[in-house]
Amino acid sequence: MTVDAVNPQQITVGVLALQGGVIEHISLLQKAAAQLSSRSSTPTPQFSFIQVRTAAQLSQCDALIIPGGESTTMAIVARRLGLLDPLREFVKVQHKPTWGTCAGLVMLASAASATKQGGQELIGGLDVKVLRNRYGTQLQSFVGDLRLPFLEEGEPFRGVFIRAPVVEEIITTAGDDEVTKLKGKQVEVMGTYPKPQGTGEGEDIVAVRQGNVFGTSFHPELTDDVRIHTWWLKQVVEGLKSGGRDVQAQS
Ligand SMILES: NC(=O)CC[C@H](N)C(=O)O
């Protein structure tokens, strides 16, 4: 199933507003929308950016951002508000474009390790296992320069990592129900960052995409760098214009 074709003149993007950097995401989305319209020679869509706290608000959205915060708390609150199943439907059945940052990435993973005792509920959508709090506690927060191949050439992106998760495993179980629902789209690594000293060789995966679902370990909304928001919004518009073909097919 694909996202229904919508009038791309009117696009509503929601930011899940249970906790975390909601206002910051909306502010960067507004800047990104202004940039898209100033760069385009043809009319760009009219965007509405709304905070989502109810299933009714979610149903108005063509795309969604799940911000950072605390995924365990977010799951509990979403469950209490009756939002968890509508969110699963939005991401995994309607295949509407969804981007999770930090705790949002945890929520969009199909599995997580280093969870609290008893585990935690997830939305799923990305066939990955995330390792929560990979870099330690709040005190080990850092800003690291990232080279993100999907962005235009330019300065490295300043990645803000706060108790950040990383993708520790890409789950490729053939015949897995979720994979089938995601139209066979495979997980694509969109960004990596060198493993901290003493924690192994190579790079950690800090950004992934699978079909319409995108996740970053870091917090672009806590910078004034609008590039990822602009890139994502463009993917959303292109996907809706083509009647719901998912964003992975666009690039
Ligand atoms: N900055 C964040 O969003 C932290 C995420 C948090 N460690 C979690 O697992 O939910």
UniProtKB/TrEMBL annotation:
<dbReference type="InterPro" id="IPR021196">
    <property type="entry name" value="PdxT/SNO_CS"/>
</dbReference>
<dbReference type="GO" id="GO:0008614">
    <property type="term" value="P:pyridoxine metabolic process"/>
</dbReference>
<feature type="binding site">
    <location>
        <begin position="69"/>
        <end position="71"/>
    </location>
    <ligand>
        <name>L-glutamine</name>
    </ligand>
</feature>
<comment type="similarity">
    <text>Belongs to the glutaminase PdxT/SNO family.</text>
</comment>
<dbReference type="GO" id="GO:0042823">
    <property type="term" value="P:pyridoxal phosphate biosynthetic process"/>
</dbReference>
<dbReference type="Pfam" id="PF01174">
    <property type="entry name" value="SNO"/>
</dbReference>
<feature type="active site" description="Nucleophile">
    <location>
        <position position="102"/>
    </location>
</feature>
<feature type="active site" description="Charge relay system">
    <location>
        <position position="219"/>
    </location>
</feature>
<protein>
    <recommendedName>
        <fullName>Pyridoxal 5'-phosphate synthase glutaminase subunit</fullName>
        <ecNumber>3.5.1.2</ecNumber>
        <ecNumber>4.3.3.6</ecNumber>
    </recommendedName>
</protein>
<dbReference type="GO" id="GO:1903600">
    <property type="term" value="C:glutaminase complex"/>
</dbReference>
<keyword id="KW-0378">Hydrolase</keyword>
<feature type="binding site">
    <location>
        <position position="132"/>
    </location>
    <ligand>
        <name>L-glutamine</name>
    </ligand>
</feature>
<comment type="pathway">
    <text>Cofactor biosynthesis; pyridoxal 5'-phosphate biosynthesis.</text>
</comment>
<feature type="binding site">
    <location>
        <begin position="162"/>
        <end position="163"/>
    </location>
    <ligand>
        <name>L-glutamine</name>
    </ligand>
</feature>
<keyword id="KW-0315">Glutamine amidotransferase</keyword>
<comment type="function">
    <text>Catalyzes the hydrolysis of glutamine to glutamate and ammonia as part of the biosynthesis of pyridoxal 5'-phosphate. The resulting ammonia molecule is channeled to the active site of a SNZ isoform.</text>
</comment>
<dbReference type="GO" id="GO:0036381">
    <property type="term" value="F:pyridoxal 5'-phosphate synthase (glutamine hydrolysing) activity"/>
</dbReference>
<dbReference type="GO" id="GO:0004359">
    <property type="term" value="F:glutaminase activity"/>
</dbReference>
<dbReference type="GO" id="GO:0005829">
    <property type="term" value="C:cytosol"/>
</dbReference>
<keyword id="KW-0456">Lyase</keyword>
<dbReference type="InterPro" id="IPR029062">
    <property type="entry name" value="Class_I_gatase-like"/>
</dbReference>
<dbReference type="InterPro" id="IPR002161">
    <property type="entry name" value="PdxT/SNO"/>
</dbReference>
<feature type="active site" description="Charge relay system">
    <location>
        <position position="221"/>
    </location>
</feature>
